Structures are given as structure tokens and as C-alpha cells.
Amino acid sequence: MILTPLLTLLSTTTATLGKILYAGVNESGGEFGVFGVKGQGLPGRFGVDYAFINKTTVDIFVDQEKINFFRVTFLMERMAPLAFGLGARFNETYFSEYEDAINHITLTKGAYALIDPHNYMRYNDPSSQPFSGSVIGNTSDPTAATTKQFGEFWGELARRFRTNPKVVFGINNEPHDMPTQLILQNNQAAINAIRAAGAPQLILAPGNGFTGGHAWTQVTGANDAPSSEFLNKMVDPLRNTAIDVHEYLDIDFSGSHDECTQPGPSNLANLTTWLQQNHLKAVISEFGGGNNQNCFQFIDDLLNYLASNDVYIGWSIWAAGPIWGTASPCCGEDTGSLEPGQFNDLGQPDAFTTVWANAVRPNIPKNLKRSGVSSLS
Ligand SMILES: *[C@@H]1O[C@H](CO)[C@@H](O)[C@H](O)[C@H]1NC(C)=O
Ligand SMILES: *[C@@H]1O[C@H](CO)[C@@H](O)[C@H](O)[C@H]1NC(C)=O
Ligand SMILES: *[C@@H]1O[C@H](CO)[C@@H](O)[C@H](O)[C@H]1NC(C)=O
Ligand SMILES: *[C@@H]1O[C@H](CO)[C@@H](O)[C@H](O)[C@H]1NC(C)=O
Ligand SMILES: CC(=O)N[C@H]1CO[C@H](CO)[C@@H](O)[C@@H]1O
User: Fold this and answer.
1) Which of 118, 306, 311, 359 could be bridged to 31 by S-S, CB 3.0 to 4.6 A?
2) 186: domain CATH number?
3) Phi and psi for 175 in degrees, rounded to 5?
4) What is the DSSP letter of 361?
5) Nearest bound ligand to CA 133?
């Protein structure tokens, strides 16, 4: 019924589209306000502890910058409260606040929105992310949510968005320090549930090691198998799933240093080969760099590399969002967030005026995907 028209759209590709289909920015804030003490900020106050977007700045990004892609973070412990457990029962207040943000981006502005449960594939204690909380599907941990529950959660989320062609489903933010096979299982449960809900949109699936592109073919954590050994085994009946990759350009790939020293192109080379060999595509949904010429060059190099390699279909830089204040989501106190109209910790204009203007804006493709169901092509 609903599936049929969307599927019809899915099969119509437009010849004039560029190779990079999606380009944009992270909208971070929906996961804020829980850090420190266990239970802090749950459920939290909208507009105080957490917020999703500032509609005015989304409008600036779409109308003036012509981007078409926003990754919008939220916290699973708020969407599926601990009192209910992970699953299909949502906090309707939080959901409607989130839906309002997604609808503004997609229905009002016509851009694509990547739905991002910002949970590191963990659930039940976000107070010390990325390390707190039980790993989803850990059968040795009686307090852990199960893979089945994770599927139920995704089935419900997908059901609620299945008629909106402009959403993209991001399975989870940055899994790490867990068996790579379990990431595959959880990803597969999400894919199955999304498709069973009748939702045909693009899905982005993460790997291990904070889904770092540079480490795709490497052991991560204590001794977790490389993402490359398992992430080519996912099955999507609609063949509309891509790999979700994060790639920072500083010394330890964390995005916490001012200086860029890790070149994107050479660090992504093995991932690129793996994607080609496995006929897969990827979106770099997080990257970033500081407010300095060296980083501008590194970002420029990265975005040029993505543009010139077929396997990459999109990117979103970390991060804008309504409640960063002067805090720097990336790369030093002189950077600040990418939110238009704000200031950095030194009281100077934030990264929208510096990093975005120097390194991102010149790389925004003109022929981004503007219509149709989110897809690989
Ligand atoms: C749902 O979220 C709202 C807004 O944050 C909050 O006031 C309410 O207590 C939450 N309900 C549950 C069951 O968590
Ligand atoms: C799974 O749970 C067990 C028991 O709590 C714990 O020892 C183990 O570290 C957990 N595994 C992961 C990947 O977190
Ligand atoms: C890329 O693959 C080669 C060959 O397997 C390996 O020697 C090298 O360490 C890998 N590079 C990275 C960054 O993982
Ligand atoms: C939203 O963004 C606009 C434009 O930068 C700014 O003037 C306004 O203060 C912001 N609103 C909030 C609530 O931050
Ligand atoms: C630079 C930066 O803030 N990177 C962060 C990107 O988001 C993930 C998830 O919140 C963090 O782990 C990174 O530190």
C-alpha cells in the first residue's frame, strides 16, 4: 500500500545526479545533558538539557549553502525510556519533538535527514558515553537489551517514518569494543525490522572501532575482528544499505585535537578497496577539522577524495546543533561548532565562519540528490 509508490520511486534514477548524493552536517544536541552521574538528564528537559535543531539555521544551511543532508542525533534512553525497556514503546513527547525536527528538514525544506540513535550500540546508561551502558545483544549481561529488542525498536521507528522518502536510517552511532559478529547481528536485526515495517529508504550500517574508516581492515579494541571480515555479510532484500563511516583527521582519529595530521585519502585506501571488492557504498557521516589552514587543506583533500571515488555517496561534517554554545564539538577551543551565528570559546565567530567557509563550502556539489526516496544512486 504505502510501500508500492515508494518502491516505484526507488527504481527511477536520475541521470543528471552527481556521484555524491548527500552533503551536509551533523545536528547534534538530542543526546546532550546526560553526562556525568548515572540517570542524570533522563528524560531531560527539551530546550534545556537537549534540543534537536534550530529551524532558522537549518534554513540557512538549505537556502544559502544548498546542502541536502542533516544527521540528527537522539538518545535511545530518551526515545525508549528505561522504564519501558528498549523496544517498540516510545516516549511520545520525545518522539514528537524529534519528528518535528525531521519533518522540518525533510518535508518543509526538502532535504534528507539521517536518523541517528547516538548510542555506541549500548543501552541503559548513557552517563559516560561512549563507554557506559550494556552492549546490545550481550547474552552474558543480564541487564543488556537483546538483539531482538533492538530489532523491535527499529521496526517501530521505521514504521513511523516509512512514508517519508527523505529519511535515511542510521542503525547506530559508533559501535566499539564488542564482537564484530555481534555488530553484524544487530545490524541485520535492524535491517530486517526496517524492511518488515515496509520502509524502503536507505539504511547506513556501522562497523567496529567507532566505525573508523582508517581501521576498517584492522583489529580494534582488545581483539575484535576487523569490520571488513563481517560487514560484507549483511543482507538487505532491497539492496539499499550502505556502510556508515567516521573519519577524523587528527592524530588519534578522535576529532579532539586542533591539528590535522592524519590524511583522509591514504587512511581510507583500504576501506575503498574493500568497498569496491564487495560492491558496497559508504557515507562518511562524521569527520572534522580545526580552525587552521592545515586542517582546511586536510578537509579539502578528504572531500576531493570522496568526490573522486565511486564508492562514496555522501558526507556530513561534525557538528552543528542548537545547544553547543561556545563549546567546540571538534578540534580545539578556537574552533567552536558549525552552527551559524555563534561564537567559539575565545569569543570569535565559530567554525561556520572559518572551517565551513574555507574547507566545506567550496566542496558542496551542485548536483546533489533533491528528490525521491533516499537510495544508493
Ligand atoms: C517523556 O519525555 C518528556 C519530555 O522530556 C518527559 O517530561 C517525560 O517524563 C518522559 N516520559 C517518560 C516515561 O520517560
Ligand atoms: C558482556 O557482559 C559480560 C558480563 O557483564 C562482560 O564481562 C563483558 O565484558 C560484556 N561484553 C561486552 C562486549 O561488553
Ligand atoms: C592496508 O592494507 C595493507 C595490506 O593488507 C596493510 O599492510 C596496511 O597496514 C593497511 N593499512 C591500514 C591503514 O589499515
Ligand atoms: C537560531 O538561530 C538564529 C540564527 O543564527 C539565532 O538568531 C537564534 O538565536 C537561534 N535560536 C536559538 C534558540 O538558539
Ligand atoms: C570531534 C567529536 O566531537 N567527535 C565526536 C563525534 O561524535 C562521537 C559521538 O558523540 C564522539 O565519540 C566523538 O568524540
Assistant:
1) 118
2) 3.20.20.80
3) -60, 150
4) G
5) 2
Segment 328-346 shows an average pLDDT of: 94
User: Has this prediction a pTM greater than 0.90?
Assistant: yes
Range of the domain at 41: 22-363
Asked, for residue 238, whether it belongs to a domain, the answer is yes
pLDDT tens-digit profile of 174-216?
999 999 999 999 999 999 999 999 999 999 999 999 999 999 9
Does the Cβ of 303 fall within 6 Å of ligand 2?
Answer: no
Nearest CA to ligand 3 atom 7: 270
DSSP letters, 121-184, are TEES-GGGTTT-SEETT-TT-TTSPPHHHHHHHHHHHHHHHTT-TTEEEE--S---SS-HHHHH
Mind telling me the catalytic residues? 174, 286
List the grid coordinates of 9.
Answer: 520511486
**Dist. CA 334 → ligand 4 center (Å):** 21
Which of 21-25, 243-247, 265-269, 287-291 is predicted least confidently? 21-25
Ligand 4 atom with the smallest distance to the CA of 55 is: 1
Nearest CA to ligand 4 atom 5: 341
pLDDT in tens, 295-327: 999 999 999 999 999 999 999 999 999 999 999
In a domain, 11, yes or no: no
